[in-house]
Structure formats: structure tokens, C-alpha cells
């Protein structure tokens, strides 16, 4: 049983929350308790990069689903989110990108320009040590020459570039924020409770004072509460506490504790859709020729931390301008040297590879709100038609780029949607029918909106938000590194501001 009172209570031990806890501990800001709804990350599938394939949809995933979205033909899609120590950073592909310098300048939030955040990225990277994937599949390596000899050696969203990505792995194993930040903080006195879901935040007048657990236990935070439950979990907890748009709360039959328009608004993600290629002697897959490799894979991984199980599935990709125009890339491609099943189900006989297109800066916005039926998560995909136009151009250009890649004898024909889907209209229909996201939801408690540039929730004392939800606009690449950067800076800011 935990003590009943702490100076700080951090809700969520995810990518950002782990860094927040470490930052508070490093500044000796007071006693710190971290509450995590999920279990430990000490589980073989978390450590082993390929393990994420089996974790998606399992008990370490929150398994959210979106509302049906008009922009994708009324479909509802899966929104996986990690539910364990390390959060989504324990279930993700570990691709490491800061984003573009201009992403942060574009936020136009005082104190968050790239010059402001760059030192924090450098500090996070000193603890994480991201590195290019060792032992990438030859197909992934074959992307490297796509933009000529003058292209950067490693892909970057700053310029057209392609090749093997960098990952937060060490010696073939996942190295998450729980490893880099939380475990050292535990040694410094931070406490963590896992399997401990928070139901709501309790207010005393306009001050956040208490955390109410799902089992009814009440804990007191003397100096402050930090909400690091992620872009879905953090606004959901505020709404459950009666903090949010008054009309929505009333319509959902909830009491309004603090009216706060903007809670849950501005939800967006990187939409993505892809191409599948299949043929014998191509990428990884389940077929007779690779049976020996798969049978030997567990032993090879256990002894040498290499082989197919050391692949985080996404191994590399590219950044480019969808229409081939000058200027910074507007799309990112993730390359997976595995045959994926496009007909549902996890497995498919054969061998091949997959590449997608994700929009770097979607204009579309959705929102998250509480209704009588529960949480409604509308990602708003393609609500702005220009997003779909860029995706169509991007998929067309991806085809020509892949045709130029140095795949040699491993090149395989496109099998889905297939070359017959060639006109812009047909590709647009394919994208609407198939698009999902890169699993990068952000923006639901944006700085400049309900949250200040010091990460405090407006209108409530003693309550801060530190996770991907505070990004006013998604960065141009994967969001784990920015989430950790936000957590890292939050620890310092909150220690200072709470004092
Ligand atoms: C399948 C997948 C693949 C991805 N791949 C990549 C990638 O390769 N590279 C990349 O950069 N990004 C990737 N991402 C995105 C990246 O992992 C996230 O942007 C990042 O982890 C978000 O960090 P966060 O701190 O905002 O939230 P999270 O890391 O999700 O942390 C939130 C934590 O809060 C906990 N929590 C939530 N509600 C409660 C509650 N009520 N009580 C207690 N605890 C609670 C959750 O269990 C979780 O541990 C991927 C995400 C997913 C899901």
C-alpha cells in the first residue's frame, strides 16, 4: 500500500512521464510517485524488437478504436497505445527522429523554438544513444542511394533522403524511456506503482489536490500533479474529472468542475497508406525457403541478438517532396522488409516488402470528446482535402522511387493495390479505403490552447501536462523523441515553477 501523500504524482510512466520523474528527482523537487495503469515492461516481447508484432492488440495495448471517419469512407481504425512501463515507447518500432527544426519554430510558442529545445534533445540522446539499425535487411540498405551521392548519409526530415533509420535500441534490445530515465530515477528515490489505473483528478476549489485510483484509493499531491497519460489518456482523464468543454460534459451527463474549451480539440495524426510487394527470394516472410531461418531465429536472437527477431519491422525509409518539387519533404515513407498481410490477419504465405507514405504535416484536425456512450476519438483523417492530394502524389512518387532502388534480385512486383490502380482517382480511392495512421496522435492539450508554455493547465493550479498531447502541431517525423524531449524539459520547468 503506498503512502497517502507525495509532493508530486506523475500519471503515466510513458515516454514523457519517465523523463518527467527523472527530471523532478534530479532537482530534488520532493517525493515523487509515478502511477502506471499497465504492468511491467520486463517481458521478452518488449525487449525483442520484432516482439511488437505480437503485442499489438494484446494486454499491453489500450486497444482504442477511432470513431467512424467520413474522410476514410466511414471506417473506424485501431489506435494502439502502450499500456505498461515505458508506455507507447515500449510497444513502438523505436524509430528515432527529432523532427524538423522548423517544426518547433512553427509552433510559435515562447520558449519552444528549435534553439530552445535543441539542448534538451541532446541531453535525451545522451541517455538514449540512438543508432542506425545494425544488420538491416539488404532491401532496406538498397534505399540509401535513392537521392544521389549528395544526399545525407542518414535519412532526415530536413531534406530529401533515404536509407536505414536510427533506433533507440542497445545491443539488439529495446532501450526505452523506462530504461534510460525511470530506472535510474527509482534508484534516486522515485516510487512507481504499476497496474494502477487513475480514474480521475480531485480538485479542491481550483487546485488539483488528489488522484483517485480506479479502485477508489485516494492519494494526495502536496506540490502538484503531472498528467503524462498520452494524447488520448491525458485529455480523457481531464474529461473524467469534469475539466473540459462545458457543453460536451453536460451533454454526456457529467458535472462541470472547470470549463476548459480546447481540452480534446486539435487531435491529429500522420495518416499513412502503403504498397505491398511479393515474390520469392525477396524480403522476409513465411515460406518454405525461409523456414530454417525462422526456426533458428529464437536461438540466434538469444545468443547473438541478431537475425529476423532483432528487426523492429520498420527498418528505414525516406523523406521526400510528394510532387518532386523543391522545398522540404512533405511525406515520410516507412520501409518494412517483410511481407505483410493486406487481407487482415497476421500471417501470409510468401516473401516480400512494404512501404508506406505518411503526411509530414497534416492540415486535418479531429477531436476527442466524452459522450454518453464513452470516449469518442475522431482523428479527422482527410477532413482537409489537400491532405489526400499530397498522399496521392506521394504514393505515385513512392512507386517511381522504389523502381529506382537498388534491390537487385530481391525486387518483387507490387501485389497490392497493384499496378492497375494507377490513376490519381484510383489511388485516392485506395487510400480512403485503406489508410490508417503512423500511430502518432498529438495535440489534444496543446500549448497555446488549454496548456501554457510552462505546461500548466490553464484555470487549475498545481496541474501540469507533459506528453505528446501538448504539441500544437505534429512534428514532421515519428513522435517518440519529441515526447521524451517534452518530458525532459517538463521535469525542470515543474520543479522550478512548483517551488
Ligand atoms: C505501435 C506504435 C508504434 C510506434 N512507432 C514509433 C516509432 O517507431 N518511433 C516513434 O518515434 N514513435 C512511434 N510511435 C509513437 C510514440 O511511441 C509515441 O508518440 C510516444 O510514445 C508518446 O509518448 P507519451 O509519453 O505522450 O505517451 P505514452 O508513451 O503512450 O505514455 C502514456 C502512459 O500513460 C499510461 N496511462 C494512460 N492512462 C492512464 C491512467 N488513467 N492511469 C495510469 N496510467 C495511464 C499509459 O499506460 C502509458 O504508459 C509509435 C506508437 C505506437 C503505438
CATH topology of the largest domain: FAD/NAD(P)-binding domain
Q: Say how many strands there are.
A: 24
- What best-fitting shape do the alpha-carbon axes yield? globular
Mean pLDDT: 96
Please tell me the CATH architecture of the largest domain by its name: 3-Layer(bba) Sandwich
Low-confidence stretches: none
Q: Oligomer, anyone? A: single chain
In CATH terms, the superfamily of the largest domain is FAD/NAD(P)-binding domain
Structural class: alpha+beta
Task: Describe the protein in words.
With 499 residues, the protein is of the alpha+beta class. It folds into two domains: 1-130 and 168-269 and 367-379 and 439-499, FAD/NAD(P)-binding domain, CATH 3.50.50; 134-165 and 271-359 and 383-434, Cholesterol Oxidase, domain 2. The chain is built from 13 helices and 24 strands. It has helices at residues 15-26, 44-47, 52-55, 101-107, 114-128, 138-141, 177-187, 230-240, 246-251, 291-304, 385-404, 424-434, 480-498, and strands at 5-11, 32-35, 64-65, 78-79, 131-132, 161-164, 166-167, 169-170, 173-174, 191-193, 198-204, 207-213, 218-227, 243-244, 258-259, 271-278, 316-320, 331-336, 352-359, 367-371, 374-378, 414-416, 436-437, 463-465. The strands form seven sheets. Strands 1, 2, 10, 11, 12, 13 and 24 form a seven-stranded mixed β-sheet that branches. Strands 6, 16, 17, 18, 19, 22 and 23 form a seven-stranded antiparallel β-sheet that branches. Helix 1 packs parallel to helix 13. The model has no long low-confidence stretch (mean pLDDT 96). The protein binds flavin-adenine dinucleotide. Flavin-adenine dinucleotide (FAD) binds at residues 11-17, 35-38, 56, 80-83, 87-89, 91-95, 197-198, 228-231, 233, 237, 439-440, 467-468, 478-481, 483. Residues 11-17, 35-38, 56, 80-83, 87-89, 91-95, 197-198, 228-231, 233, 237, 439-440, 467-468, 478-481, 483 line the site of flavin-adenine dinucleotide.
Amino acid at each position: 500500500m503506498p503512502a497517502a501523500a507525495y509532493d508530486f504524482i506523475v500519471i503515466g510512466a510513458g515516454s514523457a512521464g519517465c523523463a518527467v520523474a527523472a527530471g523532478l528527482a534530479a532537482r530534488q523537487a520532493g517525493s515523487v510517485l509515478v502511477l502506471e495503469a499497465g504492468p511491467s515492461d520486463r517481458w521478452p516481447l518488449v525487449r525483442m524488437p520484432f516482439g511488437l508484432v505480437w503485442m499489438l492488440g494484446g494486454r499491453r495495448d489500450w486497444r482504442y478504436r477511432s470513431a467512424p471517419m467520413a474522410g476514410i469512407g466511414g471506417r473506424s481504425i485501431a489506435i494502439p497505445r502502450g499500456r505498461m512501463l515505458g508506455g507507447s515507447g515500449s510497444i513502438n518500432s523505436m524509430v528515432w527522429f527529432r523532427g524538423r527544426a522548423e517544426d518547433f519554430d512553427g509552433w510559435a510558442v515562447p520558449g519552444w523554438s528549435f534553439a530552445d529545445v535543441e539542448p534538451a534533445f541532446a541531453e535525451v540522446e545522451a541517455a538514449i544513444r540512438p543508432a542506425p539499425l545494425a544488420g538491416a535487411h539488404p532491401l532496406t540498405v538498397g534505399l540509401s542511394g535513392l537521392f544521389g551521392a549528395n544526399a545525407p548519409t542518414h535519412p532526415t526530415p530536413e531534406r530529401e533522403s533515404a536509407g536505414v533509420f536510427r533506433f533507440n535500441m542497445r545491443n539488439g534490445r529495446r532501450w526505452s524511456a523506462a530504461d534510460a530515465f525511470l530506472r535510474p530515477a527509482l534508484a534516486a528515490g522515485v516510487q512507481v506503482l504499476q497496474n494502477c489505473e487513475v480514474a480521475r483528478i480531485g480538485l479542491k476549489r481550483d487546485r488539483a489536490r488528489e488522484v483517485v485510483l480506479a479502485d477508489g484509493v485516494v492519494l494526495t499531491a502536496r506540490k502538484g500533479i503531472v498528467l503524462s497519460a498520452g494524447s488520448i489518456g491525458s485529455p480523457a482523464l481531464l474529461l473524467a474529472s469534469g475539466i473540459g468543454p462545458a457543453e460536451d460534459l453536460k451533454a454526456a451527463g457529467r458535472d462541470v468542475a472547470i470549463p476548459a474549451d480546447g481540452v480534446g480539440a486539435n487531435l491529429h495524426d500522420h495518416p499513412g497508406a502503403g504498397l505491398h510487394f511479393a515474390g520469392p527470394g525477396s524480403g522476409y516472410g513465411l515460406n518454405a525457403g525461409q523456414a530454417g531461418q525462422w526456426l533458428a531465429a529464437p536461438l540466434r536472437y538469444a545468443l547473438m541478438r541478431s537475425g529476423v527477431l532483432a528487426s523492429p519491422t520498420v527498418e528505414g525509409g525516406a523523406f521526400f517532396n510528394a510532387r518532386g518539387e523543391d522545398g522540404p519533404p512533405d511525406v515520410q515513407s516507412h520501409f518494412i522488409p517483410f511481407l505483410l498481410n493486406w487481407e487482415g490477419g497476421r500471417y501470409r504465405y510468401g516473401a516480400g516488402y512494404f512501404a508506406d507514405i505518411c503526411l509530414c504535416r497534416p492540415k486535418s484536425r479531429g477531436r476527442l470528446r466524452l459522450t454518453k456512450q464513452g470516449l469518442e476519438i475522431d482523428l479527422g483523417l482527410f477532413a482537409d482535402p489537400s491532405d489526400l492530394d499530397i498522399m496521392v502524389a506521394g504514393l505515385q512518387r513512392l512507386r517511381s522511387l522504389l523502381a529506382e532502388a537498388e534491390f537487385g534480385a530481391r525486387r518483387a512486383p507490387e501485389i497490392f493495390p497493384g499496378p492497375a490502380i494507377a490513376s490519381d482517382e484510383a489511388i485516392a480511392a485506395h487510400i480512403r479505403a485503406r489508410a490508417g495512421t503512423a500511430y502518432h496522435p498529438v495535440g489534444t492539450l496543446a500549448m497555446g490552447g488549454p496548456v501554457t508554455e510552462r505546461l500548466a493547465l490553464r484555470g487549475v493550479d498545481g496541474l501540469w501536462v507533459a506528453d505528446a498531447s501538448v504539441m500544437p502541431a505534429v512534428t514532421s517525423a515519428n513522435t517518440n523523441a519529441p515526447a521524451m524531449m517534452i518530458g525532459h524539459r517538463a521535469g525542470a520547468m515543474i520543479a522550478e515553477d512548483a517551488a
